[in-house]
Design the sequence.
């Protein structure tokens, strides 16, 4: 016999006492507190997020100007490379074969590489 | 009717309605336990409320099993934190003295026999009787919740129950 079965009568006395407690107001209070905590958390996260967005927005002009600079650098580098390739190919067609081989190798590696 | 683990699972996904149902189902047990541990209805309800708030935060850690044991364990920890704030340690050895609740005369007059009988127990006996007899935890669950040895819990329950019966019987005679 389990030890717990020796005090079933007392357990029922306690359970009867507990059953008299009104569940509705207590449950409502707990849920109100939970919602209040959730609201507070949302407000905190929202406030920090908003502050972060404002800071990011203030930095946007600098970011865009830097991006325009990078964009310009890349574009001019590509144009220069095209010119240099044309010049190299004109002086020696073997450069074209070397570039083609390198491009094919890179394509093969990138296609077989797992991400 | 949905089972406690089902409701806990839904609550872990953010369902406030599921958690409200769990609160409604278990509030009596938890409030009763906290009230008997503190000896005060108001402080007991405060601890019970903190218990359910903590349970909402930790509901994702509920890994099945008896929900009542899980929630009562949280209640016990909340009670211990409350005790620490009051800088009171609980002795669980056999020689621990009887520490009566500090109640006003008015409260004492209106108190039921059961509560009076609980007051006659040592602190450790009272804790074990509240956890095992009133809250319905098994001896093992109570031992895990309190961190006390299983044999100690069994011994306190046995003595506490005997003492309760004696007190209730003498109250009936009177």
Sequence:
């Amino acid at each position: 016999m389990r030890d717990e079965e020796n005090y079933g009568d007392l357990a029922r006395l306690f359970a009867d006492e507990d059953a008299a407690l009104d569940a509705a107001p207590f449950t409502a209070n707990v849920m109100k507190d939970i919602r209040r905590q959730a609201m507070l958390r949302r407000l905190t996260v929202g406030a920090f997020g908003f502050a972060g967005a404002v800071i990011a927005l203030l930095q946007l002009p600098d970011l865009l100007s830097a991006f325009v600079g990078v964009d310009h650098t890349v574009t001019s580098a590509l144009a220069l490379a095209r010119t240099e390739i044309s010049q190299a190919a004109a002086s020696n067609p073997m450069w074209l074969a070397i570039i083609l081989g390198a491009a094919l190798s890179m394509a093969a590696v990138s296609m077989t590489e797992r991400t | 009717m949905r089972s406690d683990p089902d409701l806990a699972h839904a609550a872990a996904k953010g369902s406030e309605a599921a958690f409200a149902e769990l609160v409604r189902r278990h509030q009596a047990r938890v409030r009763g336990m906290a009230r008997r541990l503190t000896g005060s209805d108001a402080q007991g309800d405060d601890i019970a409320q903190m218990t359910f708030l903590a349970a909402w935060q930790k509901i994702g850690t509920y890994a099945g099993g008896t929900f009542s044991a899980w929630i009562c364990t949280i209640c016990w920890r909340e009670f211990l934190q409350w005790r620490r704030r009051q800088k009171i340690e609980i002795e669980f050895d056999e020689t621990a003295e009887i520490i009566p609740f500090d109640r006003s005369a008015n409260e004492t007059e209106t108190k039921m026999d059961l509560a009076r009988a609980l007051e006659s127990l040592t602190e450790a006996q009272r804790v074990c009787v509240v956890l095992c007899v009133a809250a319905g935890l098994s001896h093992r669950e109570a031992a895990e919740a309190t961190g006390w040895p299983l044999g100690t819990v069994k011994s306190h329950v046995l003595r506490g129950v005997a003492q309760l019966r004696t007190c209730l019987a003498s109250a009936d005679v009177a």
User: Anything to note?
Assistant: Chain A has one domain: 3-112.
